[in-house]
Amino acid sequence: MLRARTIPLFAFYTGLVAVSTLIFTVYVPATRGYFNIGESAVYIVALLAGPYAGAFAGGVGSMIADLILGYFFFAPATLVIKGVEGGVLGLLASRRPQLTPRYWRLLSLLVGVVLSSSVYLLGTAYYVGTSEISFGLPGFGTSFTVNMTHALWALVGLVAGAIVVLISFITRPEVGWLVLSAAASGFLMVLGYYLYEEFVLGYVALAEVPFNVGQVLVGIIIAIPAYNSLRALQRTK
């Protein structure tokens, strides 16, 4: 049962997920879905507030965004899939194994290399060329085109990997475990939407898998540094 003081927090977290999902979208014609950065908010909430807040805000906040954008056919699945994603991440992050700082940093180094390579390979395989991007809330935003090149994805990949490694060596040795936990929960999200699109909506579901994987990677890139900064602020209070 929720305590009275936690209800406003859950409402705030839910709104954060909804707005983060709405504020930046890329339409995916193959499945009539959309790419967004809402994953980052789901991850931040789950890491900061735990599995219950991650599950509630992830599911309800993402579903609200679907309804506002007119993707009614995705809303029921989103409630369940994003809820599971946030809950699993919060659970995994709170149950990390006991390792020495040396082994944590080694793990984080390996994770950083894999993350960097994944961003580059996925970006150059599916996101090279001109894309139309919408930024801002519905009715108040703007759209523009951007040219995504191989060099840009190489830079993004290097920065993503470097951020993980730097955080591990400077402030949070176990950051590699957080990235792995986010990747595991993200895999459940990708699998959930694949099954829903393939067996319920009847789409060619494989077409959206790379885009959903991209959401996971972008979510990790945004959420991990943001979470690290927010935790640092909490410790200074």
Mean of residue pLDDT? Answer: 87
Q: What kind of sheet is the major sheet? A: 4 strands, antiparallel
Overall shape: it is: globular
- Low-confidence parts lasting 5 or more residues at pLDDT below 50? none
Taking strands numbered 1, 2, ... along the chain, how are they ordered across the largest sheet? 2-1-3-4
CATH 2nd-level architecture: Orthogonal Bundle
How many strand units? 4
H/E element sequence = HEEHHHHEEHHH
Give me the CATH fold name.
Answer: Arp2/3 complex 21 kDa subunit ARPC3
Number of helices: 8
Count of the separate structural domains: 1
What proportion of the residues is helical, as a percent range? over 70%
Whole-angstrom Rg: 17 Å
Euclidean distance between termini CA atoms: 29 Å
Beta-strand residue fraction:
5-15%
Q: What structural class is derived from the secondary structure elements? A: alpha+beta
CATH class: Mainly Alpha
In short:
The protein has 237 residues and is α+β, with helices and mostly antiparallel strands.
Could you describe the 3D structure shown?
- The protein has helices spanning 6-22, 38-49, 51-69, 75-93, 101-126, 150-170, 175-201, 209-236; strands at 24-28, 33-36, 129-135, 142-148.
- By secondary structure, it is an alpha+beta fold.
- It has one domain (6-236): Arp2/3 complex 21 kDa subunit ARPC3 (Orthogonal Bundle), CATH 1.10.1760.
- Helix 4 (75-93) runs antiparallel to helix 7 and helix 5 packs antiparallel against helix 8 (209-236).
- It is globular and about 50 Å long.
